Amino acid sequence: MQEDKPFDERPDQAREDGHIAFDNLANTRDLGYLRTGHGQRILPRKLLRSSHLDGASKRDILMLLNEYNLTTVIDLRTKEEQQDHPDPKDSMPKVRFIDAPILSFATMGITREEVMIQQETTYDALLDNTRQLMSELYPHMLLNETGIRGLSLFFEVLAEHDEGAVLWHCSAGKDRAGLATALLLHVFEVPDDAILADYLATNNYMESRIDAYLGSVPAESLSPQLVESIRILNSADEAFLTTGFDALKKEYGSVDNYLKDALGVDKALKELLRKKYLA
């Protein structure tokens, strides 16, 4: 772990999109910057969205614990991802960690990590269909049994949570964390344009991650087509989010019906969440 540094960005100094300046957690944001359509504000230092916590510096962990009073982490990743990049549970012994995967290798057969280059020929079949893959991934996560179970648990944990901050994350903090966040913001009645803007804000913090990865791979193994596929896989795209929400509307009639009938987020639970997290 890295040596401590001064806390140069306090919670009330977060950027316009809620971004928090950690050493090694590039895509962690506080939803407290958002307002509902009725003018209420999401309470700051309560709801954090993030990429995985593996690699967090000592300063990052101290900031989460001391500045944000982190008490609960919801992990939306697969078991395999958790094994490859485990959260720093030993450094956060008082934090409760909840496993709530919304995607499984068995049901999808492929993840972003599998597409990241080993040998270009392995992925030839995917290169022409990367955008289609992502467009199919979002409805799958929302409508498959694993996704419904994980998202139901996500809302259940938020409803039961009382003290300190709760953080949820996937791998990059954009797809699974993005969907969970979008559904929560819908419950809070945040305007659709603000929900989309929060989802797309991920792109402000993924570019350097993508460039660093591409820079670590021998140039001769990277075709322009493969580079473009990697960028698509690691970017938030309005079309992906729209495709996911269109699919659940087609299946359930509306987002609210999906929340109620699939996830158990009924009127009473919505009111509880709003009372708990809105000012």
If you had to describe this structure to a student in words, what would you say it looks like?
With 279 residues, the protein is an alpha/beta fold. The chain has a single domain, classed as Protein-Tyrosine Phosphatase, Chain A, CATH 3.90.190. Helices cover 48% and strands 8% of the residues. The protein contains 14 helices and 5 strands. It has helices at 58-67, 79-84, 105-108, 112-115, 124-127, 130-143, 145-160, 176-187, 192-200, 203-215, 224-233, 238-252, 255-261, 267-277; strands spanning 29-30, 47-50, 70-75, 96-99, 165-169. A 5-stranded mixed β-sheet has the order 1-2-5-3-4. The radius of gyration is 18 Å and the shape is globular. The two termini are 37 Å apart. The model is unreliable at 1-14 and 109-122 (pLDDT under 50).
Outline of the structure:
This protein has 279 residues and is of the alpha/beta class. The protein is 48% helix and 8% strand. A five-stranded mixed sheet has the order 1-2-5-3-4.
Please give a handful of descriptors for the protein shown:
279 residues; alpha/beta; Protein-Tyrosine Phosphatase, Chain A; 5 strands; disordered N terminus
Oligomer: single chain
What is the CATH topology classification name? Protein-Tyrosine Phosphatase, Chain A
Cα(first) to Cα(last) distance is 37 Å
Number of domains: 1
Beta-strand residue percentage: 5-15%
Return the structural class.
alpha/beta
What is the percent of helical residues?
A: 40-55%
